[in-house]
Sequence to fold (333 residues):
Amino acid sequence: MRGVLYPVVYLQLGGEFVAMPGLVSRVRERVYCVAAPFGPGGLVHCYFIDAPRKTIVDTGTAPVPQESLLPALREIGWDVSELRYIVNTHMHADHAGGNAELKELSGADIHMHRADTDRVNPQAYLAAARPDQLLLGEPENPAAAEARVLEQLGGAWGVDRVLEDGDTIDLGDDIRLQVMHTPGHTAGSACFYWESARALFSGDAVGGQGSRVNGYPLYSFAADYRRSLERLLELPVDYLMQAHRYRWSGADNPAVRQAGDVRRTIEDSLGVWHTLDEGVRSCLAENRDITFKDLFPKVLRVVAPQLGNDPDAAGTPSGALSTIAAHWREQLA
Ligand SMILES: [Zn+2]
Fold:
């Protein structure tokens, strides 16, 4: 079916098919963005690179290949068997959950930074997430939550090429992705820099104010996250291709930021980091022996108004738990 254009794709919502304007947008020459819904209210952006060795950056959760990526490929006129490389920005279920299915359909080689490869196995993935989940006490029905994550993680797969900082992924036609290890969000988060296009695929390395209402950026290593942002600030980038629609000081939240908005996006993210770091510092200054369970709501009460979030919002805000815990741990160390 190559060459056939599908101007409209169909999205399954609650069992009904709803016509959507194309899920694919063309970012620039040779780059397409696919906005893929997942879970309750989630949206992840995957990117196709049209090079001699056709490449996808991130694969969404397990249902995303069938629900979004295959329709998107039809829309741009590629056959899935043409995909040569699957490049993961990091090991999270909403970025690598589609790997198994896409690998099976295409035979593409899976690429991931070394520092995230220890949690490719689903049981190791769940085990890595457990300590943070216990910080506020025993979660309600952890088995059901873990079952949902396992569904998002999909089938088994392995990493074909383990990446290190400074590696190059050669897509042909002088298109090269330079691997930048940008830890913080996860230990092995990586950005992929296409220097001649001044384009950066940043995954979740630049988290703004998080992507959800009243949320926070998500990172497990606070000092690393800040250092990674500072490193990215030095890079000439005209296209910042993010995985989620991160909130920032701008009026709307597109996944792709261009020109002057790139620097502003990274600077905003650094500003949020400083607000959170200061919030934790002020609470620890009052009482260094405070338990995390007591510290957490105090920090939220301090930082929420500064970031325009509702301090009285119900429940645990998205991203807040791991991120505030990272500042707390590192300040106590
Ligand atoms: Zn992530």
About this structure: The chain has two domains: 1-165, 207-234+267-333. The pocket of zinc ion is lined by residues 90, 92, 95, 185, 204 (CB under 6 Å). Residues 260-286 form the longest helix (27 residues). The chain has nine helices and 15 strands.
